[in-house]
Design brief:
two-stranded antiparallel sheet; 3 helices; NAD(P)-bd_dom_sf; four-stranded parallel β-sheet
Length: 118
């Protein structure tokens, strides 16, 4: 398989997105910090490939806001499952939230920016 088999694509404001093997379907993902800028745009990018990503678990203290949800087609809202959790809690507590919500994910996305001020 070469990169010419799966060329880069554009989607709205997003440029140079990868194109993946179309036979890979029905995956699930956890997006940590999903209501932040990077996390929310990760959710949007995943939802742009609905055949590939069947379920997206948004892991954050608060669910996506109504304003954020308004930027996502309503037909895709059912693919988003919010799991209330705080990543500053202990790993055991976060794992408990995931287990309680019945999360079984194929991938996890955690975007972290180290601040220059700390």
């Amino acid at each position: 398989m070469s990169s010419s088999d799966y060329p880069l694509r554009q989607s709205g404001i997003y440029h140079n997105l990868p194109t993946f093997d179309p036979t890979i379907k029905n995956l699930s993902a956890i997006v940590c910090g999903a209501n932040g800028i990077s996390g929310f745009n990760t959710v949007r990018a995943l939802l742009d490939s609905p055949d590939r990503w069947a379920t997206i678990y948004t892991l954050s203290r608060h669910p996506l806001s109504e304003k954020q949800l308004s930027l996502i087609p309503s037909a895709l809202h059912g693919r988003i499952k919010h799991v209330p959790a705080d990543l500053s809690d202990s790993p055991e507590k976060v794992a408990s939230h995931l287990a309680k919500a019945g999360v079984h994910a194929d991938y996890a996305f955690l975007l972290h920016l180290r601040s220059a001020f700390f």
